[in-house]
């Protein structure tokens, strides 16, 4: 169902923006150097505009539109590659590949540095900027409208009903007020346990405090990823696993909030869907 | 200093640090609750924290510290060089390479012993190479340069293995393997490493008489009935088992095998055989203490254990190099 919603949103964006009979609307050739940019490019650009996506674009654990990405070339980010592909616009992370993007700009390529924004309002601005850079500002407006409508429906539903929940990644990483994870949780009506604990921003929990103050509900992400990592020690520790097994848990696919973008609405809908499937009242897990 | 008082003092220090390691953690627990918790009594949540989180971490710290301490002392005795240390001569990095291959290519999932086995194989190859180099030219410079080359190669191959895996977190994962940590380790980790560290440590302890004889030179040792080939094999095999198993579960923790034997050597009359057991205890004290400090430093992310041992060990290493050079001149 969510997949269908996703396809419908993308189709609406493109259908609303591309005039009948003009399949190859004007717009610069564009490439993405990051999985975040991949999702924007696939949602807003014409297929013919897309010169290259990032190497992670086809990773089904990281990239929401991995299926669509399979139809496009995926290249390792490098100025030389983008220039040889005749790219006019490159979408990159604001915090990485500084030398590559500086070099591209020297060659006249427009680089859109996608910032890590934490609020849906700021995501709208990023979407509009990217859509304008790709030559399709109207598609940005349509996408923003669609996201706004879907979020409004979630807020009205209030699936979380104010219940407290703790967000955790396999390494013990969490997120409190001021993060896009908090924005998503709040949109579904959940109370963020990390914020209630007096924390803010991107934060982390240690096993001892988790055992002593187990949350009433868990919102997990990236636990399903097949990557092996020594950073997952928290999530693989028996002290965590035993308690997580008796705690109501909603697992939100990591690919829906691998970074902040229009697709965060997918994370919010996945979260709300998981909340709907939970029993009405969660049992406490104060046991050892 | 006689051996027994030294061992008693080190055991007492280990006991104090261990009690502190159990009592101090991320969550404030009453000392009486901690003591009761060790024996499974009292508040179930306190019992869970003490027995499931703090105790495995403490036991692993003792195991890893003892392994690194005794391996350093034995290697220094065999090579008759105070700079021989598992981290400096590439043994730890090579063990890390074996562990990374087992971990990221899925072998570790096949058997719980695949990870330590691969790490020990890496350590065995590195120790063998170092021994071969030292046999041709036993000078400190050659040993250190060979160690640098071996470490660099092992680190490069580790990085390559992670890139090929493929692993999206290669950079941060590298740091975890190179700097070591005991954070969130499980009882299973402590149990997996234990038999190999025990066997390796036992093998190294048995080399004491041979190492003492070796201080008089190879010919003298031979005339005293020491089988040098057997001695070398025992030190190489014992070090590989102990260091390999510890790196497999905690990553590479540097300088423990350098600092501890050096501090204790004057207290045992510069007899390498008598240095082995005190070095194991001293290593356990140092690693347990460093792990405790890593928990106490109020940073957003826990400080890596290897960072702390290196902060102590690297200046010490520099001092030692200058002194060895001065003596050589």
TrEMBL record, chain A:
InterPro entries named in the record: ABC_Transporter_SBP (IPR050902)
Signal peptide: 1-25
Keywords: Signal
Example GO biological process: cellular response to iron ion
Presence of the UniProt keyword Signal in the record: yes
UniProt-listed PANTHER family: MOLYBDATE-BINDING PROTEIN MOLA, VITAMIN B12-BINDING PROTEIN
Protein name: Iron complex transporter substrate-binding protein
Organism the protein comes from: Azospirillum palustre
TrEMBL record, chain B:
Family: Belongs to the binding-protein-dependent transport system permease family. FecCD subfamily.
Pfam short name (any one): FecCD
Membrane topology classification: Multi-pass membrane protein
Record-given protein name: ABC transporter permease
Transmembrane segments: 58-75, 87-107, 113-134, 141-165, 233-263, 303-322
Organism: Azospirillum palustre
Superkingdom of the source species: Bacteria
GO CC entries: plasma membrane
Any one GO molecular function term: transmembrane transporter activity
Cited InterPro entries: ABC_BtuC-like, ABC_transptr_permease_BtuC
Keyword line: Cell membrane, Membrane, Transmembrane, Transmembrane helix, Transport
Keyword Lipoprotein: no
Metal-binding found in the keyword field: no
Localization: Cell membrane
GO BP of this protein: siderophore-iron import into cell
């Amino acid at each position: 169902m969510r997949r269908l919603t996703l396809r419908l949103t993308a189709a609406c964006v493109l259908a609303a923006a591309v005039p009948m009979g003009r399949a190859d609307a004007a717009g610069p050739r564009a490439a993405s150097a990051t999985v975040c940019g991949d999702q924007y490019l696939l949602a807003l650009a014409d297929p013919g505009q897309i010169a290259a996506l990032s190497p992670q674009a086809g990773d089904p654990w990281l990239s929401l539109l991995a299926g669509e990405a399979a139809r496009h070339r995926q290249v390792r980010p490098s100025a030389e590659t983008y220039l040889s592909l005749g790219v006019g616009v490159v979408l990159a992370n604001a915090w990485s590949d500084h030398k590559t993007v500086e070099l591209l700009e020297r060659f006249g390529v427009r680089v859109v540095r996608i910032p890590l924004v934490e609020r849906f309002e700021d995501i709208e601005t990023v979407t509009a900027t990217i859509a304008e850079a790709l030559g399709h500002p109207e598609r940005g407006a349509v996408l923003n409208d669609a996201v706004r409508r879907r979020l409004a429906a979630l807020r009205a539903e209030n699936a979380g009903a104010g219940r407290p929940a703790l967000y955790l990644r396999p390494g013990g990483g969490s997120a409190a007020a001021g993060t896009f994870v908090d924005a998503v949780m709040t949109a579904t009506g959940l109370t963020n346990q990390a914020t209630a604990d007096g924390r803010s921003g991107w934060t982390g929990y240690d096993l001892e405090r988790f055992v002593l103050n187990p949350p009433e509900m868990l919102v997990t992400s990236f636990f399903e990823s097949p990557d092996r990592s020594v950073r997952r020690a928290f999530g693989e520790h028996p002290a965590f696993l035993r308690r997580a097994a008796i705690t109501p848990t909603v697992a939100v696919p990591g690919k829906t909030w691998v970074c902040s973008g229009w697709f965060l609405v997918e994370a919010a809908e996945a979260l709300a869907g998981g909340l709907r499937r939970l029993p009405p009242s969660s049992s406490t897990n104060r046991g050892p | 200093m006689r051996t027994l008082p030294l061992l008693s003092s080190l055991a007492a220090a280990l006991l104090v640090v261990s009690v502190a390691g159990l009592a101090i953690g991320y969550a404030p627990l009453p000392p009486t609750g901690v003591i009761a918790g060790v024996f499974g009594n009292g508040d179930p949540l306190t019992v869970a924290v003490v027995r499931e989180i703090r105790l495995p971490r403490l036991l692993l710290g003792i195991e890893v510290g003892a392994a690194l301490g005794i391996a350093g002392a034995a290697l220094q005795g065999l090579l008759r060089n105070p700079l021989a240390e598992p981290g400096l001569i590439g043994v730890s990095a090579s063990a890390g390479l074996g562990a990374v291959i087992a971990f990221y290519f899925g072998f570790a999932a096949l058997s719980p012993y695949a990870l330590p086995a691969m790490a020990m194989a890496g350590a065995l190859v590195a120790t063998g190479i170092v021994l071969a180099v030292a046999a041709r030219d036993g000078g400190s410079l050659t040993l250190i340069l060979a160690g640098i080359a071996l470490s660099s190669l092992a680190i490069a191959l580790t990085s390559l293995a992670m890139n090929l895996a493929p692993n999206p977190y290669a950079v941060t994962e590298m740091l975890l393997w190179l700097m070591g940590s005991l954070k969130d380790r499980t009882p299973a980790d402590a149990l997996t490493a234990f038999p190999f560290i025990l066997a390796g440590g036992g093998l190294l302890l048995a080399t004491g008489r041979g190492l003492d004889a070796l201080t008089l030179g190879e010919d003298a040792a031979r005339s005293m009935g020491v089988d040098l080939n057997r001695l070398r094999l025992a030190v190489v095999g014992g070090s590989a088992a102990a260091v390999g198993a510890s790196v497999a579960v905690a990553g590479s923790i540097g300088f423990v095998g350098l600092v501890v034997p050096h501090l204790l050597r004057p207290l045992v009359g510069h007899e390498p055989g008598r240095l082995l057991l005190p070095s194991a205890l001293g290593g356990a004290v140092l690693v347990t203490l460093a792990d405790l400090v890593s928990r106490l430093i109020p940073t957003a992310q826990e400080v890596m254990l290897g960072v702390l041992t290196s902060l102590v060990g690297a200046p010490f290493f520099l001092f030692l190099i200058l002194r060895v050079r001065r003596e050589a001149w």
